[in-house]
Amino acid sequence: MRKGIALFFALLLASEALWAQQPLGITEVLLYKNGMAYIVRSGQIAAPVSLTFHPDDMNDVLKSFTAWNPDTGALYSVGYTTGIPSSRTLSRFPFDISGAQTGLGSFLVQVKGAELRLDHSGKDIQGKLVAVQETDHTTAPQTSTKDHRLTMLLKDGSLQSLWLSDIRTLEFVDPQLREQLRSYLEVLAAGRQDVTREVSVYPVPASGPIRVAYLQQFPLWKTSYRVDLGDRGNRIQGWAQIDNPTGESWDNVKVSLLSGAPVSFVMNLYEPLYTTRSRVPVPGGQVAAPRQYESAVSASVGEVLQRTLTPLDEELGRGNGQVQITTRSGTNSFNPDLVGQSRLIFQEAANLQVGDFLCRRPAYGVCADHDLRGSQQRARQENPHH
Fold it and tell me: What is the pLDDT of residue 213?
């Protein structure tokens, strides 16, 4: 039994080393059977107070966190560190070196055009970076290694190629680019070391006593039973096993064990959410084209009708035939005296603005249809006597 107690205290001390002591002590804990705990902290507030939490607990904390004055019931203002991932912050920089395999050559590829100051085999060279090419570098007979060839534009306008492996030092001449690189590395290091999140309570509207309550995921509390067969009577003992993952000593803390298991859910309240919006074109971005009407009957259409009807006119060769051209706007009739005047009919028909039209010659019993869109011509003999 002593060994178990010693082990428990060893784990408690290790937990305290991981988490900083909270400024407000725990006064009450309600443990539910569904693995959730309702924690109440109390104290005095005269300056901003910050409580630290694990990132995995932030969704439950933000869903239930409250801070109020127990005497007046007034609420205190609360703030918390945002959960914007470092990758989104790093995307604002003009280069990306967050990859584990990103080397100096890959970095220089992304800053082409920057002015560099190099120490190349003891010789100072300054110029603008034109190109970076990864290629084989022969260092000895039948021996080559992967290297990057840098092409520099010097101040005198000449181009010079250098091997990256021969460069001892490299410096950006532009101070803004140097500051961007320094800021990038700071954000990268902060994202790797940031393992806690803070929720701050501010003494607004006024300082005074404070009580804070929130939900947090806890290990399930467990029970075990023992039978005590004594001389004076038999007893059944019930023991509750509670785990304390907070890293704080529970001195003078009221603990309540609840057998109920209320429905609990996790909602992503901590991570920033971004919506996708539809793109709308700028009005007037395209010049409106002039309105186009269906083209008039071209001369080629008249020629088609002429080739269709002229042989029939010559074959029939009698009577005053009537040609009707039906358009979408109405019917136009022509009464030639002679068959030879059909050319005049086609010339006038060619000036009509129509789409699909039908040319009829009921007197001769001949009908010719021409579809402008399909370029399909049909002629049929309606009079069985001819």
Answer: 96
d(CA 302, CA 289): 30
Averaged pLDDT for residues 294-314: 53
Q: Distance (Å, rounded) from C-alpha 285 to C-alpha 115?
A: 39
Give the containing element (helix H, strand E) for 14: helix 2-18
| Long-range CB contact pairs, 288-293, < 8 A, 24+ | 293/353
Centre a 10 Å sphere on the Cβ of residue 111 and count the other Cβ atoms it contains: 17
Of residues 129, 180, 191, the one with CA closest to residue 154: 129
Q: How far is CA 46 from CA 24, 40, 77, 208, 354, in A?
A: 12, 19, 13, 7, 89
pLDDT at 246 over 90: no
Pairing of strands 25-31, 36-45: antiparallel
Question: Percentage of the chain surpassing pLDDT 70?
Answer: 68
% of the chain at pLDDT higher than 90: 34
Q: Say whether 293 sits in a helix, a strand or coil.
A: coil
CATH topology of domain 115-173: SH3 type barrels. (2.30.30)
Each residue's pLDDT tens digit, 194-230: 678 899 999 988 889 999 999 999 999 999 999 988 8
Residues, the chain: 386
**Rounded CA separation 152/113 (Å):** 9
Which residues, including other chains, have CB under 8 Å from residue 275's CB and lie 6 or more apart? Answer: none
CATH code 2.30.30.720 region(s) in the chain: 115-173
**pTM of the complete model:** 0.53
Helices 299-316 and 342-349 pack at an angle, to 10 degrees, of 160
pLDDT band at 307 (very low <50, low <70, confident <90, very high): low
DSSP for 252-265 reads: T-EEEE--------
Which pair of tokens denotes residue 227?
Answer: 């039978």
Average pLDDT of every residue of the chain: 75
- Check pLDDT > 70 for residue 327: no
Dump the DSSP string for 134-186: EEEEEEETTEEEEEEEEEEEETTS-EEEEEGGGEEEEEES-HHHHHHHHHHHH
